[in-house]
Amino acid sequence: MTITTESPMDLPCAPAAGIPGLIELQSVECPDTPAPNSVLGKVALILQAFSVDDDELTLSHLSRRTGVPKASVHRLAQELLELGFLERAGASYRLGMRLFEIGARVPRTRALRESLLPFMHALHSATRQTILLTVLQGAEIVFVERVNSYGQAPSLSKLGGHVPLHCSATGKVFMAFGPPELFETAVRGGLTRLTPNSAASPVRLRAQIDRVRADGHAVEYEEVMQGFSSIAVPLYESSGRLIAGLSVTGTLQRTDIPRFTRSLLMTKEMIESSRAIA
């Protein structure tokens, strides 16, 4: 690739499509800062423009979301097509299989997913709810594995999706049992509300974290998506380092908090006793 130094165009912002009941956080249509001048920086913006809910995007969408001029997006997209990082979908683009191949090799999550998936299936059989495995990424949690509940909306927490620490049950688990600075990091980032029930004040969030620390698990009601609740526990490596969060998520009508909490804690004990996480 040839490095260029083109200036980004000022383009109008377009509203991002969201999930009902959930504020769209996965993509930004109008960047706060100018697009980087390096080719690598622009390529990163193009690939990151796809949210977990985007099957495909047009050239215009990519340009608006990245702030990169259409001509530059088109040229870089052609190279990404040749490399297999993008694929054609009519007049639009979608992420290519080459990215999936590379992502599947990430050691941080590959071994974790392979080790814990049998336990997740067992927990799903016991609860019939969606089981989610998450890891920490900055001030957010990222969904790295899931076992779906029958009939539950698949858009609730797609693989690769992410939500702020302060809203989710697993995020609260990370703040309660992870590095102390996570709480301040979350607060400095702004306690954005995903629903009216989301914790929006440091005082309320601190009280929630103290409760999680005392109980050993976290429960959230409609803080990520209206009509849904989650229970989460921390998962540790044999060295004692917090490495992931495991949760049960379901609709309020189908969620039996006491029973699901018992099943989740039993699963945590089995994982720890089997030393599934080295």
UniProtKB/TrEMBL annotation:
Q: Where is the HTH iclR-type domain?
A: 37-97
- Which UniProt key words apply to this protein? DNA-binding, Transcription, Transcription regulation
* One BP annotation, GO: negative regulation of DNA-templated transcription
Q: Mind telling me which Gene3D superfamilies this protein's record contains?
A: 3.30.450.40, Winged helix-like DNA-binding domain superfamily/Winged helix DNA-binding domain (1.10.10.10)
Q: Which GO terms describe its molecular function?
A: DNA binding; DNA-binding transcription factor activity
Q: InterPro entries recorded for this chain?
A: GAF-like_dom_sf, HTH_MetabolicPath_Reg, Tscrpt_reg_IclR_C, Tscrpt_reg_IclR_N, WH-like_DNA-bd_sf, WH_DNA-bd_sf
Q: What sequence ranges are listed for the domain IclR-ED?
A: 98-278
Which SUPFAM superfamilies is this protein grouped with? GAF domain-like, Winged helix' DNA-binding domain
Q: Name one Pfam family in it.
A: IclR_C
Q: What protein name does the entry list? A: Unannotated protein
What organism does this protein naturally occur in?
A: freshwater metagenome
